[in-house]
Design brief:
With 200 residues, the protein is an alpha/beta fold. The protein has one domain (3-190): Rossmann fold (3-Layer(aba) Sandwich). The chain contains nine helices and five strands. The termini are close together. The structure holds cytidine-5'-diphosphate (2 copies). Residues 5-40, 54-189 form the Cytidylate kinase domain.
Length: 200
């Protein structure tokens, strides 16, 4: 049986950084599911058709990290048919041996409700905006506004809204370095790997 880790949370909370580090440490596969929605948004045209026709090559465009690409992603992500078109791929990815880490918004609630570990990563709006602005070379105030608009849209939508799963471990990284956050997350994985198998 493979080991599945779901990492969700608002924009730029540190999900991807933690997911990558866990994948590296345990030799698990990693999927940044936000890239799927960013690629659909960036394609333009009919988003449902774009989601159905998505290929790996679409995920490597170098303009996907901008605030604009994030906004386009959150608009198409509210469309149920877009989400449905991407579900099977994510579930197949999650089932890979020896394990998989997926980060996004609805991994613990919709895509992998039976994940072995669910983390919900948060940080203050201001800290998240500072981190993302530094990362992509954008204006901090504009980035703060963009993140807030996106979080509000992601939380308010009826299809797979942003919210922690009931059994998620909340990790607040506001005051944490990357190393601290990764260390905490790895400790949670180790505890689950050691735990007697209930379902696995
Ligand atoms: O995947 P998500 O959008 O949640 O965030 P990320 O891309 O992993 O992190 C956004 C930025 O915050 C990156 O440049 C990280 O290096 C930085 N950061 C972090 O993720 N965690 C900390 N505790 C401190 C900084
Ligand atoms: O890295 P960051 O947290 O800024 O964004 P992302 O993970 O790349 O996601 C971009 C947008 O895609 C989000 O604002 C959501 O609207 C959407 N998304 C989603 O609806 N479900 C997911 N599992 C992942 C992303």
């Amino acid at each position: 049986m493979s080991f599945t880790i779901a990492i969700d949370g608002p924009a730029a909370s540190g999900k991807g950084t933690i997911a990558r580090a866990i994948a590296r440490r345990f030799g698990f596969h990693h999927l940044d599911t936000g890239l799927l929605y960013r690629a659909v948004g960036a394609r333009g045209g009919d988003p449902v058709a774009a989601a159905r026709a998505l290929t790996g090559a679409d995920l490597t465009r170098d303009d996907l990290r901008s605030n604009e690409a994030g906004q386009a992603a959150s608009r198409v992500a509210a469309i149920p048919e877009v989400r449905d078109a991407l579900t099977d791929f994510q579930r197949r990815f999650a089932a890979q041996e020896p394990g998989a880490v997926l980060d996004g918004r609805d991994i613990g609630t919709v895509i992998c409700p039976d994940a072995d570990l669910k983390l919900y990563v948060i940080a203050s709006d201001e800290v998240r905006a500072q981190r993302r602005a530094a990362e992509i070379g954008a204006d901090p105030a504009a980035t703060l506004a963009a993140l807030r608009e996106r979080d509000a849209r992601d939380s308010a939508r009826s299809a797979a809204p942003l919210r922690p799963a009931a059994d998620a471990v909340i990790l607040d990284t506001t005051e944490m370095s990357v190393t601290d956050a990764v260390t905490r997350a790895i400790a949670e994985v180790r505890a689950r790997l050691r735990a007697p198998a209930t379902r696995r």
